[in-house]
Structures are given as C-alpha cells and as structure tokens.
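Supplementary Note 3. Input sequence used for the single-chain structure prediction.
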Amino acid sequence: MADVKWIKIVTDIFDDEKILLIENMPEADSIIVIWFKLLCMAGKHNNSGVFKLNDKIPYTDEMFATIFRRNLNTVRLAMTTFESFGMIEIINNTVVIPNWGKHQSMDDSEAITKVKEQNRLRQQRHREKQRNLLLNEERNVTVTLYNAPRVTVDVNVEKKLDYINSSTVHENESYQQGYQQSDTTKTVDNFEEISFFQMYFTLKLGYEQIKAYKNQYPNVDIIKELKAAKDKIRYENMSFSHENQLKTFIDRWLENEEALIK
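The predicted structure, written as discrete structure tokens, is reproduced below.
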C-alpha cells in the first residue's frame, strides 16, 4: 500500500489529557517523540494503523527501538504507557493505533476487525484440534487389573468437549489448556504462588517476589490485590506482549492501592 506524505495533527494536541500526563512522567520528551514517530510510521505504511513488516511480521519493541533510534527500555516504557492510556492496542501480538481516524482521513475499523477475525479463526482451529485429541485418546480407555479379565471402559468426554466449545473467541482465552487452572494458587509459608497466564508466556509470582511486594507496599493486602489485578486482566481480555510489560502493570496497580490507603 502506498505511503502518505502527511498526517493530521490537531493544534491543541499538547492540551490533550494523555499528553499532559505523559509530560509529567520520566523521559517524557522521549516518549512524546516516540509517539510522533509512531504516527509518522503509520502514515508511511498506510496500513490503517496496523504495524506489520511487509504486512506479515508484527513489529517488536526491539524493531521499533532500532527504527526510532531510541533506547530499548525507553521504547518499552513508551509502549506500556501508550497501551495503558488506550493510545495503542496489542491485538494478536500486533501493535495497532485504534483511533487512527483522528490522525488521518481513513477508517481503521476494517483493519482492526480483520486482525480480530484472523485471531478468532485461529482460536477456533485450536479448539477443534483439542476436540479431536480428546475424541481420539479418551473415547476408549483399557484398564487391566493384575490378572483380571481385560475390561474396556467407555469414558464420557462430553464435559471436556463442552468446556472447549463454550470457550469464547477473545484474544486471551483458550490458549492455555485447562485455563481454569489459572485460579489455582499454591500456599508456601502463608504466601501464595500466583500465576498470570498470557498468550506467549506465564508470569509466576512466588514466595520471594510476593514478600518483596509486602515490604514495598506494607499497607496493601498483596494477595488480595494481585488476585484483583489478575481478574481485571482476565475479564477485560488484556494482553501483554512480554513479562516486563505485565510487571509494570502490576507495579502500578499496587502503587495506586498504596496511594489510596495513605
């Protein structure tokens, strides 16, 4: 798709609430420069605000850092900030500017819908594969007890199949087989090991990390708030592309709770 030579920028952009908040953050100038570089890059690619190399490969933080000639940690901070402010979305591990219509006279809804539809079909194929595995491996189970006669036991797999069929098509669900295990916690010396399941990684918070949180935020019920953050991620279908991004979200969650208590 041919690139465009200009993008629209409103004259009061620096009065925008999100920009004002960014200006009070560490490395504010760098983050704002990265935002404008993103906008210009989106215009150059002219792909409705969807960032993919050759329309195939999603851009990573490392790729953005190289193209923008910026420090990788600064780029990651910027991307985390943009996502938390709703300035970008991560859909199927792809960065998308959801309100691209604000910056250029074109409708981005078709491109976003296309990405979501591709993700839905991939989820559907994954569930179908699970269904076939269950049917092939568990329909008949042969049980041999010592010298007793061999008995063939029919196993009812309908409950498992119902679970697969009832899975939603949202981005973060059904990627982990038995996703309900994400509610399981492991108690260690009055601490709970809590796992945050994401599409491409699992963040496990164990004894040492939770103890560190308790020391850092002494007024916060850490276990309760970690579970609350986990529920928000699940019910709002939030997606994180790497562990550092998820850890930043958790840190901000706990910081906000500490500030409210004080």
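The chain has three domains: 13-104, 110-165, 179-261. Strands lie at 52-53, 57-58, 89-91, 94-96, 140-143, 151-154, 186-188, 191-197, 202-205.
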